[in-house]
Amino acid sequence: MEPKLPIPGGEDLPAATVTARPSPPLAKTWFIFRREVLAYFLSPVAYVVMAVYLLICGYFFSVSLIASQAAEMRGALGNMGITFLFMAPILTMRLLAEERRQGTDELLLTSPLSVGAIVAGKYLAVTAVYALILTITGIYPVIISIFGDPDAGPIITGYIGLFLLGASFLAVGVFASSVTDNQMVAGVVSFGILLLLWIFSWAGDALANDLGRALQAVSILNRFDDFRKGILDLANVLFYLSYIVGFLFLAVRMVEKRRWS
Amino acid sequence: MPVIEVSGLTKYYGDKVGVEDLTFNVARGEILGFLGPNAAGKTTTMRVITGYMSPTRGSVKVAGYDLLDEPAAVKRHIGYLPENPPLYRDMTVRAYLEFVAEIKEVPPKRRRAAVAGAIERLALGEVQGRLVQNISRGYRQRVGLAQALINDPDVLILDEPTAGLDPKQIIEIRNLIRDLAGHHTVVLSSHILPEVSVTCSRVMIINRGRLVAEDAPERLSARLRRAQRLVVRVRGPAQKVAAALGRVPGVAGVEAVTEAAPGPASDGLFYVDAEAGSDVREGVFHAMAAAGAPILELRPVELSLEEVFLQLTTEEPATDDGPGANEGEVEGDGAKAADTGR
């Protein structure tokens, strides 16, 4: 019954890290994951986000292709990353906040489930939706290869980078959703964090000192440039993975902490 | 061996007290009722036992497992219906119950049977294909119960299980809960006295986070009944009427509710408290007839929960002077509870 979603390779890494807790069998993460994916497609949210995102991506792709007349996707991929920064909070804001609002967290937290399994299941669900969206944009490279002869390398690494970038956005969103029982607040908080992490990348130009370099180092978008240029640097991959693990860890702690307050 | 052992349970919200120093055991097969007004600490206690919240101090053991050491083991033994049934509005009833069966570790081979069993037991067949958001409040409460029962847990914790139901549904749920006793151990809460007295084998009255009284419901209601209170509306001079009422044998106290206006023909409203075990209605009639003050109204007062609390919490300080006031069921800290019970 459950929809088969294409899941790129990097997907199961955060789960393995987050659920490395005493006992939770992966089965429970899977149950949460499946319910959450179904919830996306039972409500209009996933469809609307998908439609809007694909519309904007299609515009960027067409315009940059027409303008540059070049069989490459560097510009389009960059714009797709920025555009997803605006979409990610909408996809994630519901995840944990709504459980609290509806009281369903009382079911989850009193079932023999670890908080890690709950957060991992939900994160993987929204990441799967994202992966599905990216898969649909796979039509762009196909179009380019029909009419030109693109260099496959930068496109492949660009997509890997785009996936990791978006997956990091989503981890930030999951964390924001754990701090409140209000979807809107969760959305605004995650949007705010993401925007900050983006504009940090401009600090290097404005501040030519250690602070500027430090801010640039944590900026979530800088590393994406290498991927788009065709450079697959393990350090960059680890950078995004640690972002993901770090924010998911914070989300788990937030949920656990609330039980003590 | 008790199935639930709670000892010294304390939960603060910041510096606000949720529950304080609660100690009790629940034996296998027992139905224990928590009775108390809203915000008395019933929900907090249940949330701690189920592991939804962590206690500030104290320990909870369920089926021999300590909640802090082995939370998952405890959770496997508990089915919990929170005050608001924890339902996903966007799922069908059947899909929801299947999901609960999965996360509650019902083995894959038995899931189908468990879901079908819960649907049958709570008569959800009609709505099983409908979205939770489209079913009535009564059905939602039943889906909530089905959810708690689905993995056949030893212990059922039900927070206000009949709240918001119509009388017919209330009776159905009560019967179901009574059927569950014996095989399951049930802890339920209510802010309505008759609710707990008809279903429970033992009642704990909680107020302001503390245990105020604990007893079998028959004895508890006997204790409440023994002090009969009447409302009497009498036409006549207030002081004379009050004095005459006070002389009726068996009357413990008279309280004028409305100050009767001066003049012979005004109405006065009085509360008449009877001593334990005596029915003073006849005496009141004769006394008023003798005094030439016609009774306009005479009815017993249903003790509201607030008055029950007042009565129970003020009982202990009066240990020396009242007959039967020293039955000894009031747990410690009565003096402090009396302060707050007012």
Number of helices of chain A: 14
Distance between the termini of chain B: 38 Å
Q: Structural class of the secondary elements of chain B? A: alpha/beta
Oligomer: heterodimer
- Per DSSP, what share of the residues of chain A sits in E-state strands of 2 or more residues? under 5%
Question: How would you classify the helix and strand content of chain A by structural class?
Answer: mainly alpha
On the 0 to 100 scale, the average pLDDT of chain B is: 82
Order of helices and strands of chain A: HHHHHHHHHHHHHH
**Percent range for helical residues of chain A?**
over 70%
Alpha-carbon distance between the termini of chain A? 40 Å
CATH classification, class level of the largest domain in chain B: Alpha Beta
Q: What share of the residues of chain B does DSSP label as strand, in percent? A: 25-35%
CATH-derived architecture of the largest domain in chain B: 3-Layer(aba) Sandwich
Helix content of chain B: 25-40%
Largest sheet of chain B: 6 strands, mixed
Determine Rg of chain A (CA atoms, Å).
19 Å
